[in-house]
Design brief:
The chain is of the alpha+beta class. The chain has two helices and nine strands, in the order H-H-E-E-E-E-E-E-E-E-E. The strands form three sheets. The chain has a four-stranded antiparallel β-sheet, with no helix packed on it. Strands 5-4-7 form a three-stranded antiparallel β-sheet, with no helix packed on it. Strands 2-9 form a two-stranded antiparallel sheet.
């Protein structure tokens, strides 16, 4: 027992001694040693160049603000599609069961929404179409060149890309 108390007293004295200037010096040396040791650790987390891989950017579009993307509950079908709307053409009134992220690669798309507001989306911009029956809309090409869209669909598993919807009579709405 006496030997145990003696060790405890020496340990306590050592801790008190290290809490002063010597303690700060010891801590600084330990931290410095750790930083120096990191210089010799192999850089396993550093990126390495790829090989045998190529990629092509097919379209870039900038959103007018923050994109609010929502995926469906459960499994999601992700479909990437190019759509061309010829001059004078339209998509017809429709809805989607999940969100779409679209980039206008060329031309200008004019969309009329369920509340009869009109959104004009020129080349080089992007937009999100919300999901659900309350968000029916139609896309039109009112220009003289084809509108080319690159669209990513985020739909509940097994859903069609779109559902036909009744036209909105914007002449009656204010």
């Amino acid at each position: 027992m006496r030997f145990g108390r003696q060790l405890e007293r020496q340990s306590r004295q050592g801790r008190q001694r290290l809490s002063g200037r010597e303690g700060r010096l010891s801590k600084a040396l330990v931290i410095g040693g750790c930083v120096a040791a990191l210089a010799f650790v192999p850089a396993a987390a550093v990126a390495t160049p790829g090989s045998g891989v190529s990629g092509t950017v097919v379209a870039v579009g900038t959103s007018p603000g923050k994109l609010k993307v929502k995926t469906p509950n459960g499994r999601t079908d992700v479909t990437f599609r190019t759509i061309t709307v010829e001059p004078g053409g339209s998509t017809g009134w429709h809805t989607h069961r999940g969100q779409l992220i679209a980039v206008v690669k060329s031309g200008t798309l004019t969309r009329t929404l369920d509340d009869c507001t009109v959104e004009v989306t020129p080349e080089g911009t992007s937009f999100i179409e919300p999901s659900g029956a309350k968000h029916r809309h139609i896309g039109r090409n009112l220009g003289s060149e084809p509108v080319v869209l690159w669209v990513t669909y985020l739909l509940p598993e097994g859903s069609p890309l779109s559902d036909d919807a009744d036209a909105v009579d914007c002449g009656r709405k204010k």
